[in-house]
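Review form for a predicted model. The reviewer records the input and the model, then writes brief findings.
Reviewer: anonymous (R2)
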Amino acid sequence: MTKKITFPILLITMLIMFLTPATAFAGKEEVQLSTSETDAEIYIDGKLMGKGSAEVVILSNSCVTVRVEKIGYLTETITFCNKKHDAVPPKTYYVQMARDDAYDASIQTDIANIDIELKTSLSETDAWKLISMIITSYFDVIEVTDRETGYLRTSWVVQSFQQNTIRTRMIVKLGDTDPLTYKIKLVSEESKKPGTSVKNDELYREWDRVLRKYSNVIDELQSRLK
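Model under review:
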């Protein structure tokens, strides 16, 4: 009697094991996704699955998130769902990528966020006047200035873009008096989100780019304070 009961149970168990995956895949949907940029990276649920085009498989009763990225372009995120009350995913999907406005408004640089030594043959008084004049031609507000200690710091200037917020400031410190040397730093930071408050320091990170309108300030200081 025991053997007769055991065999049907074993058979049912095996059927469940084999049929369950088949059932999940039976209702799957496939989307052929392509992008306007043939080298754009396509991530499906965080995993790189191709460049320029990829097949997106959505299992029954599930969703997948597709992220398309390329330097110089805005990141595109699309969610496809294959659930009972959702619209059926399209067979094909085309991503027209748009230029990153923050990227286009800036330049790549290796002089941001580092102290740069600036030696000058001018007197301390004349050098300080010229430094202040040059910096205020780029930055409207000086937050701290002290000629006696040779320290100057501008207020942050914030500019928001479609997918980023950039904040920029200038810092000047006296490095040495003989020869007269200043340390100048152009600070450039990004939050990677639009509309970030300038006060949210924890959301900003150093950016290896500088907005074009500040790209000449270091060169001008170096050339005019020789």
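Findings: Confidence is low (pLDDT under 50) at residues 16-25.
Further findings: The chain has two domains: 2-99, 104-224.
Recommendation: see findings above.
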